[in-house]
Predict the structure.
Amino acid sequence: MAIRVARAQWRGNLPEGKGTVRTETGNFEGPYTFGSRFEEAEGTNPEELIGAAHAACFSMAFANGLAQAGHDPRSVETTAKVHLEKGDAGFRITRIQLVCQADVPGVSPEEFQAKAEEAKTGCPISQALSATPIELDARLTSS
């Protein structure tokens, strides 16, 4: 089985420190700070990276499910919105919204929605994040 590796380094205290996160393949490397995570400062953050992983995983799982049902998609585009909120116990991810548009010739709206729901619950990232509510808005752009 595959083992995927990412590394992060943090220097300094929380409000003034800074870090770098990178993938083992070298395809992504980016800075992160308190400001890029909890405010709107430049840089990346763990929640954005979770969103990227989730959108990619869902898109692949959805495309595969559609293809296995005999409907090869022309495209599947997914945006993941990861909600980070502060509560009494501190910050936590409260929900994830997957917003998907797919161009899939010949599929019925009902089968499209069924395959979208299967991908939402079946993709490995959704399974890893199952303690967090995941909402899905999947739209068919062709039929």
Q: What stands out?
A: The longest helix spans residues 46-68. Helices lie at 34-38, 46-68, 109-122, 124-128. The chain has two domains: 6-38, 46-142.
